[in-house]
Amino acid sequence: MQRRSPKIQFLFWAAFFSVVLYIWIVTVGLFNFVLIDEKPLNQPQNIIFLLFTLYGILMLLTLAGEVVSTMINSKYYQRFFGVMLFFIFLTLLVARSLFG
Questions:
Q1: pTM above the 0.90 mark?
Q2: Pairwise CA distance, residues 56 & 46, whole Å
Q3: Which of 13, 17, 62, 90 is deepest in the core (most CB within 10 A)?
Q4: Which of the 8 DSSP states describes residue 32?
Q5: How confident is residue 73, by pLDDT bands cut at 50, 70 and 90?
Q6: Cα(21)–Cα(64) distance, rounded to whole angstroms?
């Protein structure tokens, strides 16, 4: 069995959970705000709080992965977390343009 460095293990699990959180955020947003049959009178506060919490955790995890990958000079994870940051900001811009 091959043993990996703890830094590489952290980067792998940070990448895995950042992808899982991103997919979770996109599905919750799509099912509750875009693909809804009728407009609700009030915004669902629990869903909005969930999305803010998930975005906060996702940003912390992604930025931590970016910093660690830069410190150990891992080009693969630098590119991965850079692309994740691009998708996160792109998603925020799309959500902002959809909901004003």
A1: no
A2: 15
A3: 62
A4: I
A5: very high
A6: 15
